[in-house]
Structure formats: structure tokens, C-alpha cells
Specification:
This is Archaeal Type IV pilin N-terminal domain-containing protein. This protein is α+β, with helices and mostly antiparallel strands and 130 residues long. The protein contains two helices and nine strands.
Length: 130
């Protein structure tokens, strides 16, 4: 028993339409949820405090608690390991790193293994005070 070619065409077009609608729905969902991981970090404030002539303190200055393991600090592009006081950082928690006068300190958040976000940057005054 042979199938009617018009009926086969109708079934094929219906399948293509269903797949197209599913693909558009999946892409729409992905586009609207792509930035959700960054939302908590947008509400976190940070500040930099001098400790002495060679060290600074990166301070969680308000907002939601964040994982210390996902944060990195660089000084003039060189990664430094802050001595975070706890695995989860809340307001008032801090870490200290070495940073000489005139250095650029950058706080980074590793959103995933392949996605790093710059949370804040600071330029320390130079040795001459400028």
C-alpha cells in the first residue's frame, strides 16, 4: 500500500514546523536566562583599603554573600591570593594582598570555567602620592 505523496509532504512540513517552534522557544529561554548568574554579583559592593605601604585589603562592602573560591585578585596583571577569612564572604569580610604604590588592583569573579567578569578596578596612588 503506497502512501499519498501529498500526505507525506503535509506530515514532513508539520514536523519541520514543530521543530522550528521548539528551537525558537529554546533560544528564547536561553536568551532570557543567560544573565541570571551575574545578578547576585551586580548587587555586591567592594572597596579597597590600604593596610600599609605594601598591602591592601579588598573588602565586601555590602550585598549578598559570595563564594571566596570564585573570586580572584590581580595586581598589575599578576594573580595574588588574598587571605580570605571565610569560604563565604559577606559584608565586612575581607582579604589582604600585596600591592605596591602605583599598582592597578583588579577584582575578578569566575562565573564559570570559561567566563571571568571584572567586578572592580582600583589604581593605588604612586610612591610620590599621585
Amino acid at each position: 500500500m503506497a502512501l499519498d505523496p501529498d500526505r507525506l509532504l503535509t506530515v514532513a512540513l508539520l514536523c519541520v514546523a514543530v521543530f522550528a517552534v521548539a528551537a525558537v522557544a529554546a533560544l528564547g529561554y536561553a536568551a532570557t536566562t543567560a544573565g541570571d548568574d551575574a545578578d547576585p554579583m551586580r548587587d555586591v559592593r567592594w572597596r579597597l583599603e590600604p593596610v600599609n605601604d605594601t598591602h591592601v585589603r579588598v573588602v565586601h562592602d555590602g550585598g549578598p554573600t559570595v563564594s571566596a573560591a570564585s573570586l580572584r585578585v590581580t595586581v598589575d596583571g599578576i594573580e595574588r591570593r588574598p587571605d580570605w577569612r571565610a569560604p563565604a564572604l559577606g559584608p565586612g569580610d575581607s582579604g589582604v594582598v600585596r600591592a605596591d604604590p602605583g599598582s592597578r588592583v583588579t577584582l575578578l569573579w569566575d562565573r564559570s570555567r570559561v567566563d571571568t567578569v571584572v567586578l572592580d578596578r582600583w589604581r593605588l596612588p604612586g610612591a610620590d602620592g599621585g
